[in-house]
From TrEMBL, chain A:
Name the record gives this protein: GATC amidotransferase
Keywords: Transferase
Domain of life: Eukaryota
Top-level taxonomy: Eukaryota, Metazoa, Chordata, Craniata, Vertebrata
GO biological process: glutaminyl-tRNAGln biosynthesis via transamidation; mitochondrial translation; regulation of translational fidelity
HAMAP family per record: GatC
Cellular component per GO, a single term: glutamyl-tRNA(Gln) amidotransferase complex
SUPFAM superfamilies given in the database record: Glu-tRNAGln amidotransferase C subunit
GO-annotated molecular function: transferase activity
TrEMBL record, chain B:
Protein's name in the database: GATB amidotransferase
Molecular function as annotated in GO: ATP binding; glutaminyl-tRNA synthase (glutamine-hydrolyzing) activity; transferase activity
GO biological process: glutaminyl-tRNAGln biosynthesis via transamidation; mitochondrial translation
Keyword list, A-Z: ATP-binding, Ligase, Nucleotide-binding, Protein biosynthesis, Transferase
Keyword Hydrolase applies: no
Source organism of this protein record: Sakesphorus luctuosus
Family, as annotated: Belongs to the GatB/GatE family. GatB subfamily.
GO cellular component: glutamyl-tRNA(Gln) amidotransferase complex; mitochondrion
Segments forming domain Asn/Gln amidotransferase: 347-456
Transferase listed as a keyword: yes
């Protein structure tokens, strides 16, 4: 079962990844086949597991103010700031639709 | 012409009243210098992990209990993915699979035909309450084509209260939200001040013909007050009816309420249907809550949340307080409703009653008509009233003892309102408003008037 172009395009939009070329898509295909081996296990009557830590105790923190106040340090990571604000483009710039952008997927 | 049945559901986000954020120790505060209340975790710097704030869980449990919900003893956290500049991690930690509370109800009152004298009680089902993170704030600078981001709000704890589509108009939606606001404020789980963004409401609106399936719904956002909520919902109902009667269709879209124009407008392109790719939050094990029966013997108290312990300590909810006021003071339900609807007014009323011999049934008129009338006229809150409960009680005592007339009392109140520090008695003396009680003196005056008449 091959991954369809629609699904690949959908993934590129959602996760902003670029499958770049046939090799990239093939790698994805192989990863899915590898994970599909899990279906061979009979899990009837077994509760799905979220993580190996799921039966640990969830630690509850007291409601005290213990951090923050490090504006300068945080802003150092930003290429551009304006008066202690981070700067971002005006709203999301969506990836152009499949027919309108240069992607290897077009030829698939 | 077949009748239309409007259907309204609500999603309410209430900011939890706590010192620090849901998963980090940075402070929760309105209006602070940008990015000053932000920890490394809030900024989503690599290597940071969420640590759950106990107070936020207690707030959600309190709220769930007050809304008659079943509290899930095991609830889970999930990631909801989407890209936006004010969501640095690229996902929000929420509770999509198993939220902390489900299946509750909220009762609220409505006046029929705008007459305060006829109130009905309605109920809306609460689908669920979930804990989730708030996002940061985006300031759009259209002139420079950029967005400025302040992460002070990023990570603040929210309770999302989802109300089933049991409401049918703007008035019902507004009344339900108002009651929820009063409950949250009474519990202290949220201060629920809409103007400060502590209470945000999204409405889902659709219309259909009786007996037919529900129509396509639109989501209304950007509603800044309870008044605008009612207007937005009613406008949208009308818009949908007109559109359908003209043969058009309703799009499943998100619309914003434009308060200046009084209408709803489609929200800027939301990129089609969102796929949030929900997944379990791998860094947080399930949240386990206990009750008296299931309380573990050997656990550190600070790590245990006991639902029954919280239940026992819930304060009287507004509906209970209203009934108590009616029972204790013999006032009407609609009076009690107005007392509870105004912050501090019920307390003011009770203080006056304590300090005066006048019957509560008479005092209530002075509180609701005269005092409240003045406050509304001058846009003041009860706390800002220049007339204290002590002064008003003093005045009402003069009236009760028949030392002044009712008309004179109103005059004194007008003078007291100026807040010049005079006592009621001083004003009565100044303006010579005392009622004459002395029989002989009254006879002399009457006789003098009669004599004057005869002489003319």
């Amino acid at each position: 079962q091959k991954v369809s172009v629609e699904v690949l395009d959908h993934l590129e939009h959602l996760a902003l990844v670029d499958f770049r070329d046939a090799e990239g898509v093939e790698r994805l295909q192989k990863a899915i086949e590898f994970a599909d081996q899990l279906h061979e296990v009979n899990t009837d009557g077994v509760e799905p597991m979220d993580s190996v830590l799921e039966d640990r105790c969830l630690y509850l923190r007291e409601d005290d103010v213990t951090e923050g106040n490090c504006t300068k340090e945080l802003l150092e990571n930003a290429r551009e700031t304006v008066e202690e604000y981070f700067v971002a483009p005006p709203g999301n710039i969506p990836l152009p639709k499949l027919g309108e952008r240069e992607t290897f997927l077009q030829d698939s | 012409l077949a009748p239309w049945v409007p259907v309204v559901g609500l999603e309410v986000h209430a900011q939890i009243s706590s010192n620090s954020k849901l998963f980090s120790g940075s402070q929760v505060q309105f209006a602070a210098p940008p990015n000053s209340l932000v920890s490394f975790f809030d900024a989503s710097l690599p290597g940071t992990l969420p640590v759950l704030n106990r107070r936020c869980v207690e707030a959600a449990v309190m709220t769930g209990l007050a809304l008659n919900c079943s509290i899930n003893k095991k609830s889970l956290f999930d990631r909801k993915h989407y890209f936006y500049a004010d969501l640095p991690a690229g996902y929000q930690i929420t509770q999509q699979r198993v939220p902390i509370a489900v299946n509750g109800s909220l009762s609220y009152s409505l006046c029929i035909d705008n007459k305060m004298s006829q109130m009905v009680t309605k109920t809306v089902r609460i689908k669920q309450i979930q804990l989730e993170q708030d996002s940061g704030k985006s300031l759009h600078d259209d002139t420079r084509s950029q967005t400025l981001v302040d992460l002070n709000r990023a990570g603040v704890g929210l309770m999302e209260v989802v109300m089933e589509p049991d409401m049918c108009c703007g008035e019902e939606a507004a009344a339900a939200v108002r009651e929820l606001q009063l409950i949250l404020q009474t519990l202290g789980s949220s201060q629920a001040v809409m103007a400060e963004g502590q209470l945000r409401v999204d409405a889902n609106v659709s219309v259909h013909h009786p007996g037919e399936p529900y129509g396509v719904r639109t989501e209304l956002k950007n509603i800044n007050s309870i008044r605008f909520l009612a207007k937005a919902v009613d406008y949208e109902i009308q818009r949908q009816i007109e559109e359908l009667e003209n043969g058009g269709t309703i799009l499943n879209e998100t619309r914003a309420f434009d308060s200046k124009l009084g209408c709803t407008v489609p929200l800027r392109d939301k990129e089609g249907k969102q796929d949030y790719r929900f997944m379990p939050e791998p860094n947080l094990p399930p949240l386990i809550l206990y009750d008296a029966k299931s309380l573990p013997a050997n656990m550190n108290h600070q790590q245990v949340i006991n639902i029954d312990w919280i239940h026992e300590r819930l304060p009287d909810l507004p509906s209970v307080k209203r009934e108590k006021l009616v029972e204790q003071y013999g006032i009407l339900p609609e009076h009690s409703f107005t007392l509870m609807n105004e912050d501090g007014l019920a307390e003011f009323f009770e203080n006056v009653v304590k300090q005066t011999q006048m019957k509560p049934k008479k005092v209530i008129g002075w509180i609701l008509k005269d005092l409240l009338g003045y406050l509304k006229e001058h846009s003041l809150t009860v706390k800002e009233s220049p007339v204290s409960s002590y002064l008003l009680a003093d005045l009402l005592n003069l009236l009760e003892k028949k030392e002044i007339s009712s008309t004179a009392a109103k005059q004194v109140l007008a003078e007291l309102w100026k807040g010049e520090g005079k006592t009621p008695l001083e004003i009565v003396k100044e303006q010579k408003l005392q009622l004459l009680q002395d029989q002989k003196e009254l006879e002399q005056i009457c006789q003098a008037v009669i004599d004057r008449q005869e002489n003319e």
